[in-house]
Write a structure and sequence with these properties.
Layout (H helix, E strand, L loop, with lengths): L3 H33 L2 H22 L2 H7 L5 H33 L4 H9 L1 H17 L3 H24 L5 H22 L13 H68 L4 H28 L1 H8 L7 H27 L3 H22 L3 H25 L6 H29 L5 H23 L3 H9 L6 H24 L1
Length: 507
């Protein structure tokens, strides 16, 4: 088995390149679809997606994370987990059938019946790929995963744009989602070449189910909290208002979703392999945390300053009302960048129960903010949502790192330099936006202002703050492994092999 650090860094390169491509694809598809479809088309699918997305949390049942986190796991255990995932996926698909008429009644929208029924088929394909994805993550095959994800996204976008061009309306969004899911699942089966057998007796999965169940419950609580506003806006303000809010929400979260997709699975896999070495765990986590925070803060300030220009360029004039919502939601970008990586630390070290407790405190706060903002429409919801999350950041950080090898001082030290750099970049860009906003076209303003902000931010972070060597070593270099890393990596590999041999002898 290759050295853990080498696999982590090479996998990181692949993920960065792949997510960069995915980001371009998503932005491109957003630009095209926003001009071919109306806000009501997106809002209609969003009404169904809130519920199907909730059901989707249960598809993996947290068992992919359980497979990755375990220091040792046998083929028989993975096989049993596969069939559990398939059972859950089939149940969820069937559950969508009685859910569809309930959605029709709640939203007073008959078209939701067939939209929900069509989206139900995706559960079976998603379930079939859960353990194949986990196996590839355990093997640190992030290059292959990146290629598959990029190819699946490309195929989904091609299908979606083609259907929109042919006048399929909201079915284009449905087709894009399902095409991406099917392509991803088929590709992972082909690449892993792992075909599960029949369920095996004697393969212990109880502890894996407990671990996965805790993570799933955590996801359920937070999904309800993070998506309640979409349900309420659609019900009380209509599909058009939900379409505007949903597009603004998705647009502001595309960059952070790509960053998290790039780093999260990679970081979780690596941290799980070194979970028993406190110093190495702390070192790995802070490097990943620094990378995520530095990218997130640049995106946050850029979105806040150039919200109007971004919406006009990416979505078009008919979406201009989404610009205010977009700007009000920008603080959430920073918040998610600061708190999401803490989940890696908790789950990789077996502290998933603490993550669940945090979720049970945070969820009611978010729900309360949404209810308070709802009478003021999408703008009021966006403002209240961002305000609560911003106030929650520090308590979340303190609670997450308590008793771990990472201290709150480590986190604040990591955050301080990108934060100051972001403030300076904002100060540099605001005069340009204020004095020349009416003279330059939105695209010209984005190009000019974007270059100014990025240049100022990088100059501050890398030169003034002295972070140049750190980020170059982090992103561009694969250094020789330390003895501790080599020992840990070899031990993890040996445990997997021994567990597999022991299980086969017992069978």
């Amino acid at each position: 088995m290759k050295d853990l650090k080498e696999r982590t860094v090479s996998g990181g390169f692949a993920k960065i390149l792949g997510q960069g491509g995915n980001f371009a694809l998503r932005i491109g598809s957003t630009v095209i679809l926003a001009r071919l479809l109306d806000p009501k088309d997106f809002g209609l699918v969003a009404m169904a997606s809130v519920v199907t997305g909730f059901y989707g949390i249960f598809t993996s049942a947290g068992l992919s994370s359980a497979t990755v986190q375990r220091a040792s796991i046998s083929d028989d255990q993975i096989t049993n987990l596969f069939w559990i995932n398939m059972l859950v996926g089939g149940t969820l698909a069937l559950l969508c059938l009685p859910t569809a008429p309930l959605l029709v009644s709640y939203y007073h929208e008959p078209r939701l019946f067939w939209v929900t029924t069509a989206l139900a088929t995706g559960f079976l394909f998603n379930a079939a790929a859960v353990q194949h994805t986990a196996v590839m993550q355990r093997q640190m095959r992030f290059v292959a995963l990146t290629v598959i994800d990029s190819f699946a996204s490309f195929m989904g976008i091609v299908v979606g744009i083609a259907m929109a061009y042919l006048g399929c309306g909201y079915w284009a969004v449905v087709g894009m989602t399902l095409s991406c899911t099917v392509t991803s699942t088929v590709s992972k089966w082909v690449v892993t070449a792992w075909i599960p057998g029949l369920p095996r007796r004697g393969a212990e999965v109880r502890s894996l189910l407990v671990y996965g169940g805790t993570i799933t419950l955590n996801s359920v609580v937070m999904y309800v909290a993070y998506n309640l506003e979409k349900v309420l806006i659609g019900r009380f303000w209509g599909a058009a208002a939900l379409g505007l809010y949903g597009r603004a929400y998705n647009l502001v979260n595309i960059p952070t979703e790509n960053i998290n997709a790039t780093v999260s699975t990679l970081a979780f896999s690596a941290l799980s392999r070194v979970q028993h070495d406190k110093e190495l765990l702390r070192n790995y986590f802070l490097k990943g945390y620094s990378l995520v925070v530095s990218m997130t803060l640049l995106i946050t300030v850029s979105c806040a300053v150039f919200a109007d220009d971004l919406v006009l360029v990416l979505l078009g004039p008919k979406w201009s009302e989404a610009a205010v919502i977009f700007r009000l939601l920008t603080p959430t970008v920073m918040v998610f960048g600061l708190i999401t990586p803490l989940g890696w630390l908790l789950h990789a070290t077996g502290r998933q129960s603490r993550g669940l407790k945090i979720a049970f405190v945070l969820a009611p706060l978010i729900v309360t903010s949404v209810v308070l903002g709802l009478p003021h429409g999408p703008r009021g919801v966006a403002f209240a949502y961002s305000s609560v999350l911003t106030l929650w950041v520090l308590p979340h950080m303190l609670w997450s790192v308590h008793g771990t090898s990472v201290s709150i001082r480590d986190l604040l030290r990591t955050v301080s330099k990108p934060l100051l750099s972001g403030l300076v970049a904002t100060v540099a860009a605001l005069p340009l936006r204020y004095f020349f906003g009416d003279q330059l076209s939105p695209f010209a303003m984005l190009m000019t202002g974007g270059l100014l902000m990025v240049g100022t931010y990088l100059w501050m972070l890398l030169i003034v703050m002295g972070q140049k060597e750190f980020y170059l070593n982090l992103v561009l270099k694969v250094r020789s492994p330390s003895p501790a890393e080599t020992k840990e990596s070899g031990a993890a590999s040996l445990q997997v092999e021994v567990a597999g041999k022991r299980q086969r002898r017992q069978s």
